[in-house]
Design brief:
single chain; alpha/beta; D-Maltodextrin-Binding Protein, domain 2; 2 domains; five-stranded mixed β-sheet; four-stranded antiparallel β-sheet; 11 strands
């Protein structure tokens, strides 16, 4: 088990939780030590997995939407279809938020302002979170390449900027924003997707508001290219069993993960459709 991120990262927490559940419940009969190989948002280890371990049956790692965004932005030559995607573990919806004193009452008000005068509305968004907001602006009739994005190093800096009034609007993962939303410090205007987020059940979705934008972050387990079928099936079955345990459910609740298990053609279709949305979004962001 190799994590393409540092200890304590989201990738690290995900894979360590999975291995702990597998071991505690005696689901697998092979050792699952964790090795951290950080670099390039997981891209460094993915390249090594592809170059050195093609066909291996004993190498697993974790990835997410960032594999697609890195490829779309030219930061990595590899994408999800260059490895063996074994199973999706979870999804996380994005949320658009504003500080409570911004004056924006709903998502249409924000998007109309961005469409009318993009420079006047700084939007906080990590580079990989810009994509869904770009799609929303395009859906509202605007030009995504003109959005005044302000990128912060992490969610803490972005939240500080929102609370201080340096920016009025931001987009990020729902779980990252949830504490400040529930405390009333931030106001959630919309959750990106078709279905409401259970922990923000009073917040409308983008689909409800008339914007056909549903892209979500995801995390999943992958192996090297040409991984043998018997190994893929072994790990798919083990992961499915792990996700059904009380230990996983408790960890998902604690970390605000939405478990979403997919494999096979269902997973391939999801990844293909999501990757197309990623490619389209970054084309729109970078045009002009």
């Amino acid at each position: 088990m190799t994590v393409g991120g540092a200890p304590g990262s989201g990738f690290d927490l995900t894979l360590r939780t999975l291995t702990e559940v597998l071991g505690k419940n005696k689901i697998v009969d092979v050792p699952t030590p964790i090795d951290n190989r950080p670099g390039a948002d997981g891209g460094l280890w993915a390249s090594q997995m592809i170059d050195k371990y093609s066909g291996a049956d004993d190498r697993l790692s974790v990835t997410s939407l960032v594999m697609m965004t890195n490829h779309a932005r030219g930061k990595s030559e590899f994408n999800y279809d260059d490895v063996t995607m074994i199973a999706q573990l979870m999804t996380e919806n994005f949320a658009v938020v504003t500080n409570k004193n911004s004056g924006y009452g709903d998502l249409p008000a924000v998007l109309n302002a961005v469409v009318s005068d993009p420079g006047s509305v700084p939007v906080g968004a990590a580079s990989d979170d810009q994509m869904p907001f770009a799609l929303l602006v395009e859906a509202a009739g605007g030009d995504a390449s003109k959005i005044n994005f302000v990128a912060y190093e992490g969610g803490g800096e972005q939240s500080t900027a929102l609370l201080s009034g340096d920016i009025d609007v931001a987009i990020a993962g729902s779980s990252e924003l949830l504490p400040l939303i529930t405390s009333g410090d931030l106001k959630a205007l919309a959750v990106v997707g078709k279905e409401r987020y259970e922990k923000l059940s009073d917040v409308p979705t983008t689909t409800e508001l008339g914007y056909d934008v549903t892209i979500a972050n995801w995390r999943g387990i992958y192996g090297p290219p040409n991984m043998p079928d018997y190994a893929v099936k072994y790990w798919q079955n083990a992961i499915k069993e792990a996700l059904e345990t009380k230990e996983w459910r408790d960890a998902a609740e604690k970390n605000q993960w939405v478990t979403s298990y997919r494999t096979g053609e269902d997973l391939n279709t999801f990844l293909k459709e999501t990757n197309q949305q990623v490619t389209d979004a970054f084309t729109k962001i970078e045009k002009g």
